Amino acid sequence: MNKHLLVTISEDPTAHFGLRFVCAFFKHKDDVRLTLFNTAPQPPAVWAEEANYETLRKSEEAAELIIQSGKRAMEAARGIFVQGGFNPAQVDDKIVSRNFSRIQDIVKEGESGMYDAVVFGRRGMLRLENFLDKSASEEMLHEKFAFPLWLCRDVEYDRKGVLLCVDDSEPSRRMADHVGYILQGETDHTVTILRVLRKSDASQSTEGLFGAAIDALEENGFPSRLIKTRLMQSDNVAQAIMREADRGRYAAVAVGRSERHKGTLAQLFAGSVTMALFRKLTGAALWVSR
Fold it and tell me: Are residues 147 and 167 in the same domain?
């Protein structure tokens, strides 16, 4: 079964970080299907009392400029993927008129299209960051995102491997399953499963801390010989993750975003940790699963 990614694009070159990350990450590109997605803003509205030949003509011209801009962005993105080793037949494109905000349109498409992940470049991340700063929008993120996000800010394309950060939460288990599925056949990558314990929990038993994540990876066919584990102690979980990400030069850092927590370990990947990684992680892409 092909891995199907929704890749958000725009004419801004910084949006290409996501595209180039996908090209660099996958060696076996035949197993990957891509859909390029762009939402075209609506041209300025013409009110009935203002409608005349001149205003209608200008509105049509504005609409045509928007369409042509979207097509140029699509062609540029398609060129990057083809140059990066993808067959043109693997790359679809989709331009839609904006119904809500750009982010909300992407969320709607991501849910309805049943994609395995939605990929954002730098500009998309900045817009997503602004989107998250609003409490209503943050609630929408918590409740509505039913797919993993790949957030590519300042990625280094020569990196390898995935740092899978785990706790005892269901989102963490879903992310382990996602990593295993994405890495099917991608034996150039290793997976390091990272568990961060707060210093106050240092005396607790470490037995079974990695079992669920290892099981999820192996159930997806990922070789056990390519799985490593790492246990760290720190009261600043996000900082510990970023230190390990820099040390190991991982291509991606994968986390589950927990919202309601019953135990200490599940609290490690509360929203504050994920948001700290969202704002500060560089070098690696950030994969987030709700």
Answer: no
